[in-house]
Structure formats: structure tokens, C-alpha cells
Amino acid sequence: MFKKLMSIFILAAVTVSLSACSNQKASTAEAKANNNIDVVVSFNPMKEFAEAIGKDKINVKVVVPEGTEPHDFEPKPRDMESISKAKVFIYNGLGAETWVDKTLSTLNNKSLITVEASKGADLIKTTDYDPHTWLSLKEAKVETKNIKDALVKADPDNKDFYEKNYEDYSKKLDELYSEYKAKFDTVKNKNFVTGHAAFAYLCRDFSIEQKSVEDMFAEGEPTPQKMKELTDFAKTNNIKTIFMEELASPKVSETLAKEVGAKVEKIYTIESKEDNKDYIQSMKDNLEKIYDSLK
């Protein structure tokens, strides 16, 4: 009986101790989170870059929900409140988020550090500037530097931490660029077909060319004339893969692929987080699929 009572007592003591440790850890984590820099970002690529630089010293909130085209998004009052209460607000710019200027003009937070991540990028202009700068490994370095500078400004005590994370991330971008620059330099065919014209910056990085079913903002169905041009192009250039994206219409890509006897492959615009891949993984996947289609 005595041994049984002692066993119960010891078990109870261990349970209480473990519970106390668990609560202490939770409290420590909560206190740490409360001391972090509050960062609000417009959509997924900005989240990827901010977390790569800020890691566990920032709390990140995303305004545009997963699966939503950022160009078409309209912020709710709760979104505007989140931005107003943040220390740092990061957006891409160049019209990717048409709602930003109006939103920022209504805020009362004079100390808010705003970051137009694409500022200083080497821009591509058609009728307007192409906003898809994050889909270039080279321009991603510009964007992450702008984000790093803002985090240093918001939290100067941790400058070395942000600087090191930026250098580490830049190295990863450089390594991926070098790997695929060598690969793309070996292919003679430089043309591939996408769902919408999001990949001009990626193309410039590697001296390849995209033909797209839809325009850069994936607006509107292509005309019969545009479809005929794409069909003729695909047949003439022996295109074996038609790429499609999650936020652009897959049906048109599928129709074109069927017409020319090609397969359909998914490619990432990274506007939302897909297949649980981070930015580096998504870009590597994109580059490998495009390279395979050109061989």
C-alpha cells in the first residue's frame, strides 16, 4: 500500500513539474514574441523575404489571403488596422498591390516604416512597369536588401543579426543563379509558354523568352487570334510543355496543350505559398521544369 501511495505521489509531482515547465516555456515564448518587431506584408513573396531576414526576431502578418490575386485585392478595415499598428509594412510596389497608396494615405501611424521592396530594381517596362520583380533571383537580392535595411532601422540593436541573415540568403540566391545560368547556357531552344506573362524578370536572368496565354496581370481570356498565334508558335518551335499557374486560368493552358500535343506543368508565381515550398525551393522547381522543357 505504501509503495503504491509513493508511486502516485511521485507521478503527481512529475506531472506538476512538467506542466510548470511547459507553462514556463509557453510564457517565455509569448514574452519573446511580444518583444519582436511587428511586420505586416502585402503578400507571400514579401513574407518569404521578411522571414528569411528577420527570422525569430519578427512577427509577420500577411494582408492578402492565400489563393487571392494581390492585384485584385481590396483591404478590409481589420487589414488597415493591422498595418496601422505595425512597426514595418512591406509591399512589392509597381502596381502589384493597387490598394497600397490609398491605404497608406488613410493611416495615422507617423512612425510606420514603409518598404517598397522593388525600389532600386532594374525594371522591365512594356506599357507599364512589370511588377513581378520577385521572380528574378537578381532582383530578389534588391528586395531583400531593402527589407533588411528597414529591419535594421526598426531594430538597430539587432543590426548584425539582420546583416548576417541577408548575407546568408544572398549566397543562396547567388548559388541557385549560378547553377541554372550554367544549365541554360547549354540549351539552343530559348522559348517556353506560360499561362500569364509573369516571368519576364526570370527570363532576363537566364536569356530565355516567354510566350504567354494571358497578360502580366492574368486579366481576360485570350482572343481566338491570340490562341492561333500561340498554337502556331508552339508547333513551329516544337513546344512540348505548356506551363500553368495557380492564380491564372488553367483551362486555357490545357486547351492550348491539347491542341499542340504538349503536356501541362504547374509553375510557381509564388504569389501564394504552394505545395509547402519556400521561395528558394519554388524557384529551383521553376527553373528545373523550364530547363527540362528546353532540352
From TrEMBL:
Keyword annotations of the record: Signal, Transport
Q: Note the CDD domains from the entry.
A: AdcA (cd01017)
The cross-references to PROSITE patterns, in alphabetical order and at most eight, read: PROKAR_LIPOPROTEIN
Signal peptide: which range, if any?
1-22
Q: Which residues cross the membrane?
A: none
Tell me the domain of life.
Bacteria
The family database entries (InterPro entries) matched by this protein are listed as: AdhesinB, Bact_metal-bind_prot9, Lipoprotein_PsaA-like, ZnuA-like
Question: Record's PANTHER family?
Answer: HIGH-AFFINITY ZINC UPTAKE SYSTEM PROTEIN ZNUA (PTHR42953:SF3), HIGH-AFFINITY ZINC UPTAKE SYSTEM PROTEIN ZNUA-RELATED (PTHR42953)
Family, according to the entry, reads as follows: Belongs to the bacterial solute-binding protein 9 family.
- Protein name as it appears in the record: Zinc ABC transporter substrate-binding protein
| Organism lineage string | Bacteria, Bacillati, Bacillota, Clostridia, Eubacteriales
